[in-house]
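Quick one: examine the sequence and fold tokens given here and explain what the tokens say about the fold. Here goes:
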Amino acid sequence: MYIVHSTFAVPEGKAEEVISIYKNRSRSVDQAEGFIDFLLLQNEKRPGEITVQLTFETKEQYLSWVRSQQFKDIHDLEKKYPDQELAAIVPTVRQYKVVAT
């Protein structure tokens, strides 16, 4: 398995708005080859810290998703979000190979 975390700090008072956006996400990634799971995580001690966790069967399948037109379309929409403070968020991305379960 291959897990990717995209972690970002949400501007003060906007965590619930971001959570709502992800609750209503397009679910395009769910159709990607090798996709296993999507989780949205909120840091308990720092509620403005949000992490998107994606799980794929393999790194190659994840990279195929990242190179896809659907991925590009979703991220282009994010750049056009009306709240420019949210649109400007740049996540820290960490990638993990699962080595034991």
